[in-house]
Design goal:
52% of the residues lie in helices and 8% in strands. The protein has ten helices and four strands. α3 crosses α6, α6 crosses α8 and α6 packs across α9. The chain binds zinc ion. The site of zinc ion has 6 residues, from α6 and α8.
Length: 275
């Protein structure tokens, strides 16, 4: 994985909800968050699961660039202030943690041929949301910034969104929807992606030096905030069941801390020779 940090853009643009744009796909993905991962190891994807991909590394990078450019054309990002400082600070640490080879190896992330051009921006928008486009473009909305209280909680959200990008979930969705359409099977795969992003995200934030327990605190808080909303049954929803999600998140906290401790103490297996 090659990584480049580009300067933050300070351009003027508007709006985030154009249904005609490719952006919508990613916003939609970013808004679906939940649990449920039980694939058996057998493929080249994250966790050694089978994972068809529709986009080449170059296509992912280009789509990410174009979608980010479109967002910046439409909505003016913040050019300074504590929200932008916090998002930049946390995003940089998460992006750096994504380069930790033992972590990549443990998750079996496919990153060798991929280039990430990390960029960060904050948009004034009341939605409680954030997303990471393919290629490493992180977008956080001010509605989320009003909800989170600490860097650890922001790290939980950003790590989850970055996990989607690292695991090529957008490319996988395109591939799966080409072959199986938008039915129940597709929803099942979407839930697997959400669970996977939770799992990878917990480890990513921990390796970046944040407290993984705060992911549980934050998602629980967001779940409570949404408790009056109408929920679809899990089998009809992209979202895994909230209670199950909390259980899984909590179960991953201790292993993530143990893995970070092992790395800090030099107790990790030597790197495998890639190609
Ligand atoms: Zn998600």
């Amino acid at each position: 994985m090659q990584t480049r940090h580009l300067p933050r853009r300070a351009r003027v643009f508007h709006l985030i909800s154009d249904r005609q744009s490719v952006l919508c796909t990613f916003l939609l993905m970013a808004s679906i968050c939940a649990v449920g991962c039980d694939d058996r190891p057998r493929g080249q994807g994250p966790g050694h699961r089978e994972q068809p991909l529709a986009l080449s590394p170059a296509q992912e990078l280009q789509i990410g660039r174009e979608a980010f450019h479109e967002i910046l054309e439409r909505t003016p990002p913040l050019t300074g202030g504590p929200d932008l400082e916090r998002v930049t600070r946390v995003s940089q640490r998460i992006a750096k943690a994504a380069q930790i080879e033992p972590l990549q190896r443990e998750i079996n992330l496919r990153l060798a041929d991929y280039e990430f051009e990390w960029e960060y921006c904050v948009l004034k928008n009341d939605q409680v949301n954030a997303f990471c486009l393919p290629g490493g473009k992180i977008v956080v909305l001010t509605g989320l910034m009003r909800t989170i209280q600490t860097d650890d909680q922001l790290a939980a959200v950003i790590a989850h969104e970055v996990a989607h990008a690292l695991a090529h979930h957008a490319s996988e969705r395109v591939a799966r929807e080409r072959t199986i359409g938008h039915g129940l099977l597709s929803l099942s795969y979407n839930r697997k992606q959400e669970s996977e992003a939770d799992h990878i995200g917990i480890f990513l934030m921990t390796f970046a030096g944040y407290d993984p327990q705060q992911a549980v605190v934050l998602w629980q808080k967001m779940m409570n905030a949404g408790q009056n909303q109408v929920h679809l049954p899990e089998f009809l929803s992209d979202h895994p069941n909230d209670g199950r999600r909390m259980e899984q998140l909590q179960a991953w906290v201790a292993p993530a801390r143990a893995a970070k401790k092992a790395l800090d103490e030099g107790r990790v297996a030597p790197a495998v020779q890639h190609r």
